[in-house]
Design brief:
By secondary structure, this protein is of the alpha/beta class. It contains 15 helices and ten strands. It has a five-stranded mixed sheet, sandwiched between helices.
């Protein structure tokens, strides 16, 4: 198995450094007084890509299940995994690649994926000029601001390039050392010819006349478990009812997003994007609905994880696959799906 010592060292160091709880951003809202259990939730980035998660908070689905959820943003799968290891988060939303890397290192308390949220990559390639007839060959000889080396977004970008006959780092340069929270700002400041962003980033740049969306990475790469809810194996074993309640709330929110029109979804999540207009949020939800970006249910299928590991191997980040059952637990999702 390929060594991923840099990631492991980072996780261990952060595990020692994190001493406080996650910073709460938005309390759950529900009707009436309900006795609740506090749960600290970490998300990999702040994006409309995770609309069902925000709906679960704003529409009171978590509260209805007896969970008082505090949300924080990690800005990176490695940071989200570190929060779980450091016990500064109970549940974290990020790509399964972090769980795979940690499992490959033989961790005693591995990170387990228990509920899938998205089924495709939710990022977009943004350029400096409109390209209504964009072709991937257009990026040859250019510079793309991508994601962190070894992360699902970066590997998805590389997969899209290779799928279209573009060799990463040979035919096109990819910048990997800019923090996810700073990529849009770097592009606005003149760095790169293209940038990989999640909504509302592309919409904001278009509104400012700085950038133009030219391609959807989700459309280019197809089905892949881009973001999944995780917890440590020990936390799941010690708190099965909390995990089940969490999964129940998320599934209800997923159904609510699927069943309601974009303007109503925008109303429900607008509080999480105070600097973004309602019109932009609505347009983004419409785009994501059109791409079938959200998983139909929270069960992470084995063939889906297998495809992700194929992408990881193709990117040179993994030498051999880890067993599905060592990084995935579908017990709670299956119970939720079978409930009347």
């Amino acid at each position: 198995m390929k060594k991923t010592s840099c990631l492991l060292v980072l996780l261990l160091l952060l595990g020692l450094l994190f001493t406080g709880g996650c910073t709460g951003e938005t309390p759950g809202q529900g009707e009436g007084e309900v006795e609740t259990v506090k749960l600290r939730l970490s998300e990999v980035i702040r994006s409309m890509f995770y609309a069902p998660q925000y709906v679960a908070i704003s529409k009171g689905f978590f509260r209805h299940e007896g969970l008082d959820v505090t949300l924080s943003t990690a800005w990176g799968a490695d940071m989200g995994a570190a929060a779980l290891i450091a016990k500064t988060a109970d549940v974290a939303l990020f790509g399964p690649e972090a769980a795979i890397y940690i499992c490959a290192q033989g961790a005693e308390n591995p990170i387990i994926a228990f509920a899938q949220l998205t089924s495709k990559d939710g990022s977009f390639l943004v350029g400096r000029e409109p390209e209504p007839d964009f072709k991937w060959e257009n990026v040859k000889g250019k510079v793309i601001i991508g994601g962190r080396k070894g992360g699902v977004p970066q590997m998805t970008l590389e997969y899209a390039l290779k799928k279209n006959g573009i060799e990463p780092f040979v035919d096109v340069d990819i910048i990997q050392n800019i923090h996810l929270s700073a990529t849009a700002g770097a592009f606005s400041g003149g760095t790169g010819d293209y940038v990989q962003l999640w909504q509302p980033g592309p919409a904001v740049l278009e509104d400012e006349g700085i950038g133009y969306t030219v391609a959807s990475l989700g459309a280019a790469t197809g089905l892949c478990p881009n973001t999944v809810f995780h917890a440590t194996k020990k936390y799941i074993e010690e708190n099965p009812e909390i995990i089940k309640k969490f999964t129940t709330a998320i599934y209800k929110a997923m159904l609510w997003v699927e069943e309601n029109p974009a303007p109503e979804v925008a109303d429900a999540i607008e509080m999480f994007f105070p600097d973004t207009g309602h019109e932009i949020i609505t347009k983004t939800i419409e785009v994501y609905k059109g791409l079938d970006i959200w998983a139909p249910n929270p069960i992470l299928q084995e063939d889906s994880l297998d495809r992700l590991q194929d992408i990881m191997i193709l990117a040179g980040e993994l030498e051999e696959k880890v067993p599905y059952e060592e990084v995935v637990n579908t017990t709670f999702a299956q119970e939720v799906m079978s409930a009347p």
